[in-house]
Amino acid sequence: xxxxxxxxxxxxxxxxxxxxxxxxxxxxxxxxxxxxxxxxxxxxxxxxxxxxxxxxxxxxxxxxxxxxxxxxxxxxxxxxxxxxxxxxxxxxxxxxxxxxxxxxxxxxxxxxxxxxxxxxxxxxxxxxxxxxxxxxxxxxxxxxxxxxxxxxxxxxxxxxxxxxxxxxxxxxxxxxxxxxxxxxxxxxxxxxxxxxxxxxxxxxxxxxxxxxxxxxxxxxxxxxxxxxxxxxxxxxxxxxxxxxxxxxxxxxxxxxxxxxxxxxxxxxxxxxx
Length: 273
Ligand SMILES: [Zn+2]
Fold this sequence. Notes:
This protein is α+β, with helices and mostly antiparallel strands. It has helices at about 1-10, 135-140, 150-155, 160-175, 185-210, 255, 265-270; strands at about 15-20, 45-50, 50-55, 60-65, 70-75, 85-95, 95-105, 110-115, 240-245, 250. The longest helix is centred in the C-terminal third of the chain and has 24 residues, at about 185-210. The termini are far apart. The chain binds zinc ion. Zinc ion (ZN) binds near residues 233, 236, 255 and 256.
């Protein structure tokens, strides 16, 4: 695949897309943007990510091709008009060059994607699930120097936790929202792993029982401390505090998590000034 990407790069870089002609039934896996929206865009590079060929088309986005097991790419100079057996898509470029994606397999189908800017499509890498061994190894032995709260919110590091469950998990583990993973000792790491897993398991259970028609507004109400700043801590009764960020807020209990210390809240200090 790497060699193919390089070969296609030599042929295609600098040329503009003139036509994208879908030839295979359901081989195009995206609906928006339309392939026609990329007509006129210039190929900046042809790269490979995993088993995907990536045609970088500058600011408009990318076209991905997955050849599956028995796919191949033919370079046509000049472009043909035939529709050979197993044809998936023909991309016609300026200067009289086209590539035809074909497949000869029966089971696993070659496919292609048209992705706008910022859309990773099938390339989006989601981290391991919280109940996986991979996540356990990361928490128990990892040397990630970011804050635990940041790590838990990062979908590429662990999938599906998010800010709400991150608040609850840190509260369960009785760790400061400012704690970094690298700073935690073995016992704290083990507590953290248990906390994340139990919070997520309870969350899933609650989501299942909640399936009958509750409004989206009720969604946040099942958290133990997330969204509960100003209310008493369910464990010790201390008032829960918040740290405000532009995109979210972090809730914690000063008694249970920071040894009584109240962390600076940027929004609060701005208001005081
Ligand atoms: Zn508390």
